[in-house]
Design goal:
Number of helices: 24
CATH architecture of the largest domain: 2-Layer Sandwich
Largest sheet: 6 strands, mixed
Distance between the termini: 102 Å
Number of domains: 4
Radius of gyration: 43 Å
CATH superfamily of the largest domain: Reverse transcriptase/Diguanylate cyclase domain
Oligomer: single chain
Shape: elongated
CATH class of the largest domain: Alpha Beta
Length: 532
């Protein structure tokens, strides 16, 4: 509808104009009426009409005054004047200043309708012209944005020469002297992102782009653009603190306006557009820190500490978990798991892929050893492919840790409720003790007591599950450690005998020869010759 204001210092004239024609049939709505020049000026300001029909001579301000001000301010308001016969020349002057036309009182319906047709035609033409101009400006703006985006993508890839026109235009728009790269990433919590349709995801990306445009492009403090699926911002600034303040403001706006939580990664400031590649890579690495420090944060790159070997420490911690699973209460197992995972997090900090691969290999080792000990595990627990995919799916290390602990808790409960597993757990506990105390006196009676069985039943129980008698098994463990010491150390034979639980070196040698067909000293010499 065309918005219309009627104005005359005589109320009866306004009343007559209202009734003279069917305004709605002309697509017009009377939104206001005024009785003097000042009131009309105020209504034009407040109601933004498309058309004004006004007496040319009103108190306070004349028609000429109003038409001049409308044109001076560039307001899109069309005016039709009404004049008395003696004001003819005055009315013609008003047309010269931009009025559509003038009507002589008393207003004739046919003449009014003719002038209104002319006004409608001019308003429609003006609107179409504005649309064309708007589309042109939009296309120009889109073209400039695409050119700027392309230039910044090339700069962050290190592929734009300072000699190119694109570089020079970018330098003119982002004068520096310092530049900081920000990357904005939505926290796609699994339970939320799984419910998002492709259309919703596109709308979210569009909304984020609008907020960033208003914050950075429209204000002239930087430029926001898409690089792949990333929202990237290049901030042009002269104060070091400015980018962090802007990053905090971005987080607040995303949560306030879009109800989204985001992480923002910042590079350190660099001098010159040619260093944007360096800054962008640093912001990318900073975003990886989210995996370790948590979601919805401002992230800066933390230099990696000097790496050192943790293989032995990690191996021992894994065995603490294994021993706990087979012989201890759940709170102790949980404590061992937490310490093991905390150690992995500390030593892989800043390197997500290393953290995931280390956890994968470590969990696989624990599951493998539990299985070797005779514990029955579900097919799912043994599926390494599924395990690797699951560990890769978590957004943070803490989420992954929680899942791992949950898996082991479930396994622990299944082991505890399985009667077959209970026997295996008892056996694993006995084997673990023998492996750790083989250098001490180990008797059938002491092990039976540990298993809460009488010696006769324990002997039968042990042979049933290991396919060898208890004494033979203990000897096998001791001899295995003895061969390691003979091959890898220079200890005397009597020293080795003591270290594997034999008080008499002669007895040790006899048992060794019975097992391997040669004396310990001959075994050592043969092993050295083989190595040479």
């Amino acid at each position: 509808m065309i918005r219309l204001i009627l104005a005359d210092d005589e109320p009866i004239i306004i009343k007559g104009l209202r009734k003279l024609i069917d305004w709605e049939s002309f697509g017009m709505e009377i939104v206001g009426q005024a009785y003097d020049g000042n009131e009309l000026t105020q209504l034009i300001e407040e109601l933004a009409p498309d058309l004004v029909i006004s007496d040319i001579c009103m108190p306070h301000r004349t028609g000429i005054d109003m038409i001049k001000e409308i044109k001076q301010r560039g307001l899109p308001v069309n005016v039709i004047f009404i004049s008395a016969y003696q004001e003819f020349s005055y009315a013609r002057d008003a047309v010269a200043f931009g009025a559509i036309d003038y009507l002589v009182k008393p207003v004739v319906k046919q003449q009014l309708e003719s002038v209104l047709d002319k006004a409608i035609s001019m308003i429609m033409e003006h609107n179409e012209e504005q649309k064309r101009k708007g589309k042109l400006k939009l296309l120009e703006r889109k073209s400039r944005h695409e050119e700027m985006q392309d230039a910044l993508i090339q700069l962050t890839d290190g592929n734009l020469s300072p000699k190119t026109k694109s570089f020079q235009e970018t330098d003119a728009q982002l004068p520096g002297p310092f530049y900081t790269v920000l990357i904005v990433e939505v926290e796609r919590l699994k339970e939320e992102s799984d419910r998002w349709t492709d259309k919703e995801k596109k709308l979210i990306e569009f909304a984020i782009g609008n907020v960033l445009q208003e914050s950075f492009i429209d204000t002239g403090i930087g430029y926001a653009f898409m690089k792949g699926i990333q929202h990237v911002i290049v901030v042009s600034h002269d104060r070091d603190a400015e980018p962090r303040i802007l990053a905090e403001d971005t987080q607040k706006k995303m949560e306030t306006f879009l109800k989204l939580k985001v992480s923002v990664a910042l590079s350190r400031p660099v001098s010159g557009l040619m260093k944007l590649e360096e800054a962008y890579r640093e912001a990318e690495h900073a975003m990886e820190m989210k995996y370790f420090v948590g979601l919805n944060r401002l992230l800066s790159l933390v230099p990696k500490g000097k790496p050192y070997a943790i293989d032995k420490e990690l191996y021992d911690l894994q065995w603490d978990v294994i021993r706990g699973m087979t012989a201890k209460a759940w709170p102790e197992v949980q404590a061992a798991l937490t310490l093991w995972l905390d150690t992995i997090k500390k030593e892989t900090y800043g390197n997500r892929s290393l953290a995931v691969s280390t956890c994968f290999s470590s969990v696989s080792f624990i599951i493998q050893e539990l299985s070797k000990s005779g514990v029955r595990l579900s097919e799912r627990a043994l599926d390494k492919r599924e395990l690797q995919q699951k560990l890769n799916s978590f957004e943070t290390f803490n989420q992954m840790s929680g899942e791992i602990i949950g898996v082991f808790e479930k396994t622990y409960k299944e082991m505890d409720s399985d009667s077959g597993n209970k026997d295996k757990i008892v056996l694993a506990k006995i084997k673990q003790y023998i492996d750790e105390h083989y250098d001490e006196e180990i008797t059938l009676e002491s092990m039976a007591s540990m298993a809460f069985m009488n010696p006769y039943y324990f002997s039968s129980f042990f042979k049933k599950h290991t396919k060898q008698n208890f004494k033979t098994y203990v000897t096998e463990v001791r001899m295995k450690h003895a061969t390691d010491m003979l091959s890898l150390t220079d200890l005397m034979v009597y020293e080795i005998a003591e270290k594997v639980g034999y008080n008499n070196a002669r007895h040790f040698s006899d048992m060794f020869k019975k097992r391997f067909g040669k004396l310990p000293i001959d075994y050592r010499q043969d092993t050295k010759k083989h190595l040479e």
